[in-house]
Sequence to fold (107 residues):
Amino acid sequence: MNTIDANSLLLQMRALAARAHGLETPAVGETQKTTDFNGLLKNAVNAVNEQQISAQTLAADFERGDPQVDVAQVMVAMQKANVSFQAMTQVRNRLVSAYQDIMNMPI
Fold:
């Protein structure tokens, strides 16, 4: 799973704040960075969704009595899905907090 680079995120936030104050115009390379961040975030959300679907599928197979699926597999898959969902929730909370901080900056 890809990780979010904190320094890159901080640079993007500073660039957005500067742009909001009218201090700089967006550079050509900056647009690509924003697209990469959006893609990274979308891929992370999709990965969490895939883990949850996989865990649900394993649980359903176990409930149907599939001999190839044991309870340990199901529990590990469910815990992975739970941890990844909690991590994504924390990332979302941090992003919302950063957005609110930027919006509350004096102009």
